[in-house]
Each structure stands twice: as C-alpha cells, then as structure tokens.
Here is the input.
Amino acid sequence: MVKATGFISLKEQFAEMEEGLIRIIGIEKVPEPIQLTHKSIVESARRYQYGGKVNIAKGGQGETDFHGRLVSLLGNIERIDNDSDEGPKIYVNCEGL
Here is the structure.
C-alpha cells in the first residue's frame, strides 16, 4: 500500500500530478479500482483548477476528485519521458486522445 500526494494540474488535454510524493505505508488487500475515462479525469481537474466543489463522499464517477482512491485507466503507453525537468512523465493514449 502506498500513499501518493501531489497537485493535479491541467495542461492542454492532460491532467498530471505535480510535485508528487509516494510512500510505502503497508500491505493490504487491494480494493477494486474506480474505472476512469479521459473525460472524467479532465473534468475533475477542471473543477479543481477553477475552484469547483467536489463531493468525495458520493464516490461516483464524475462526482469525485479521486483523492485517496485506487483508479484504473485503460490505454496504451505511448512513451515515457525521463528527460523532463519536472520529473518522469508517462504518456498514455486512451480513447484515441
């Protein structure tokens, strides 16, 4: 089990975690992930970026900022950029985007 902390930013059509910190905090049974889409991630990042309120308690897709949740995104890794000044980046093609 890990704890990931960081800031979500929206750049062009990408949502990414900046200044991320990941710590191993234990071993647990993995819960079922929330299935995400490109659209749900971008909408969540936009709400957060523009001061919109999110409702973590409801936990439904499109109703949460996914904070502290296990998520799954179906796609293909297009490339991994280790040369960025901002740290490693993984580019995933999902839903043709």
User: Anything to note?
Assistant: The two ends are 30 Å apart (CA to CA). Residues 1 and 30 are 8 Å apart (CA to CA). The beta strands are 2-11, 14-24, 34-36, 71-73, 76-81, 89-93.
